[in-house]
Design goal:
Helix content: 40-55%
Largest sheet: 8 strands, parallel
Radius of gyration: 18 Å
CATH class: Alpha Beta
Shape: globular
Number of helices: 12
Oligomer: single chain
Order of helices and strands: HEHEHHEHEHEHHEHEHEHH
CATH architecture: Alpha-Beta Barrel
Number of strands: 8
Strand order of the largest sheet: 2-1-8-7-6-5-4-3
Number of domains: 1
CATH topology: TIM Barrel
CATH superfamily: Aldolase class I
Structural class: alpha/beta
Length: 274
């Protein structure tokens, strides 16, 4: 199955639009695990086990592992997710963006070393920095388009004088992803839940692309506005929540609390489809 096939199937099977982000911060781990980076796998695996039947997708953020020299734990976690949730696609949140020869190595890292189904990329070095990922048959790539952070305005909302109609930069990225760059049919776009009007604009430009939407939960994005702006019959969305789920409790019940928060978030998203 391609990434988008997996995403569509998991959406239907779990009745879910929820992407569970895996951003492990040892300083926030519960009880005796607090501050212990050797417990990153154990913590994340417990979250995965608790949400495997709720999540539409999982999104491990590679920096949270690499900062603690825990890449081996990430590899172990990827195997674990394949075993306990084989139908749930895994998005490696790496935001890579480099020249073609280096991108080939990053693509190998994402799809061969970690066996991810999809990866997040920065498109700002152009198509040759994206193409190596698209050569992996059936694998997906989400391009940063209109991100949830306030500083996204610094570049993404600038107008391009050299392009007909003077679109904003994020609009131009959406057009490229919907059109000439989508050579394997598996491109998607990252659009922040903190900007629902921009989600709607991206959806107008890219009606069939999957959207990865961070910013619901700890960042305060509006779940109802997000779903209304982004979800269509043609276009899937994955709404990410990380910290609100991971750290719903700092006690021994952290996994149960994570499950309750994930269920609540899934239900809010589903109610927003009405």
């Amino acid at each position: 199955m391609t990434f988008t096939d997996m995403l569509r199937a998991a959406t239907a099977q779990h009745n879910s639009l929820l992407c569970v982000g895996l951003d492990p911060e040892p300083s926030r781990f519960p009880g005796a695990w607090q501050g212990d980076a050797s417990k990153i796998f154990d913590f994340c695996a417990a979250i995965v086990d608790a949400t495997a039947d709720i999540a539409q997708s999982f999104k491990p953020q590679i920096a949270y592992f690499a900062a603690h020299r825990a890449e081996d734990q990430l590899e172990k976690l990827m195997v674990h997710m394949r075993r306990v949730a084989p139908n749930v696609p895994v998005i490696l949140d790496a935001k890579r963006g480099d020249i073609g020869s280096t991108a080939e190595q990053y693509a190998k890292e994402a799809f061969e070393r970690y066996q991810a189904d999809c990866v997040t990329l920065s498109p700002f070095m152009g198509f040759d920095s994206v193409l190596p990922y698209l050569k992996y048959e059936g694998k997906g790539a989400y391009l940063l388009c209109r991100t949830s952070n306030p500083g996204g305005d610094d570049l993404q909302s600038q107008r391009l004088a050299s392009v007909d109609g003077q679109p904003l930069l994020y609009e131009h990225i959406a057009r490229l992803a919907q059109g000439p760059w989508n050579v394997n049919g598996q491109l998607g776009l990252v659009v922040g839940a903190t900007y629902p009007a921009e989600i709607a604009r991206v959806r107008d430009i890219a009606p069939t692309l999957p959207l990865l939407i961070p910013g619901v939960g700890a960042q305060g994005g509006d779940a109802h506005a997000t779903v209304q702006a982004g979800l269509t019959a043609q276009g899937l969305i994955s709404v990410n929540s990380s910290r609100a789920i991971l750290y719903a409790s700092n006690g021994a019940d952290f996994a149960d609390a994570a499950r309750r928060e994930a269920l609540k978030t899934r239900d809010v998203l589903n109610a927003s489809m009405a």
